[in-house]
Amino acid sequence: MANRVRNFGAGPAALPLPVLEQIRDELLDFRGTGMSILESSHRGPAYSEIHEEAMTNLRRLLEAGEEYEILFMTGGARTQFSLVAMNLLTRGSRADYVTTGRWSELALDAGRRFGAVREIWTSAPHGHDRVPGDDELAPDPRAAFVHYTSNNTIYGTQYHRVPESGGAPLVCDMSSDILSWPLDVSRFGVIYAGAQKNLGPAGVTVVVVRRDLLERSEPSLPETMSYAAMAAKRSLVNTPPVFSIYGLALVTRHWLSQGGVREIERRNREKAELLYAAIDGSEGFYRGHARPDSRSRMNVTFNLPTPELEASFLTGAAAEGLAALKGHRSVGGVRASIYNVAELEGVRELAAFMNDFRARNG
Ligand code: PMP
């Protein structure tokens, strides 16, 4: 498709072209029902099949066992910052937080409003340029949970392991790297993620919660905000974001047909290596924000020698169809978001543009 750009936006992010084409093709008449999925009852057979498929596909891709419930909630990851504490931080308990960027700081702030919380490590003093090693973390084994953010979308840092929680349930905001590499779900109490980066269109928030933790949700919580109530009703307490869940069903089906998470990881490594090689081979022209051992394979963040060169880089890239590369305002510079859907060919074009731009301006 000649007029589609290479989209390096941080989210909502690019969707697989075959998925967009399928959505277009069945938009007016969903599989012979004579109406759009956007117009179908969320309790009718057409949507029910989609709802169940979305849950099953996600469970398969995550390799999550039956001891986990998959919930489809709303309000984005941002709402989960509060809901995690509302559901899990029971009276008299305390939760530990690791803060490695803006989103984990907001999660900590939200937690503070519902109970006792403790920040056990932060990368703030060094501009959120890395994540901690296990030897730097000493979570309380009696903590209600230990919260961390696996990929820091703004700063471009990422854990390449599941951190040790010392026995307390591990809670992870995986909004910007869920399904990007195979991980052992059994290490987690709760995983949550907004859909709009690696899962599908914005609107649904996925929550994967270990069943034994459901007992902690107080019956006084509104049903739409209670993990236990949502699990009991298969996330159909109220009208779910049907279009977003439909998109998620198609995106997860697409990845299952492509070889699953191991194949996704292989592609992600190759893409990230291309861009970090362009940074490392630039003799200091491009300065990566993240320290090498914490480099994100999802968001590659870097600066150029001057703001003028950064502006000219962004304009030049856009003119070549390399879109949405402007860094977040708190870091500036350039951010190339290369989520699961970003194609290798587009990343090659960006690496070539980086090398060429440096040759012309270095
Ligand atoms: N957590 C992370 C790691 C994110 O990247 C984002 C959004 N960029 C959020 C939370 C907030 O997500 P939402 O907009 O779905 O609330």
The bound ligands are:
4'-deoxy-4'-aminopyridoxal-5'-phosphate
Taking the sheet with the most strands, its summary is: 7 strands, mixed
Q: What integer is the average pLDDT? A: 97
Q: Bin the strand percentage.
A: 15-25%
Shape type: globular
Can you count the helices? Answer: 9
What pattern of helices and strands is seen along the backbone? Answer: EHHEHEHEEEEEEEHHHEEHEEH
**Number of strand elements:** 14
Radius of gyration: 21 Å
Low-confidence regions:
none
Please give a structural write-up.
The chain is of the alpha/beta class and 362 residues long. It has nine helices and 14 strands. The protein has helices at 17-25, 45-62, 76-88, 102-112, 227-232, 242-257, 260-280, 307-319, 344-361, and strands spanning 6-7, 68-73, 94-99, 116-122, 146-149, 151-152, 157-158, 170-173, 190-194, 205-210, 287-288, 299-303, 322-323, 334-337. Helix 2 packs across helix 6. Residues 11, 76-78, 103, 149, 153, 173, 175-176, 194 line the site of 4'-deoxy-4'-aminopyridoxal-5'-phosphate (PMP).
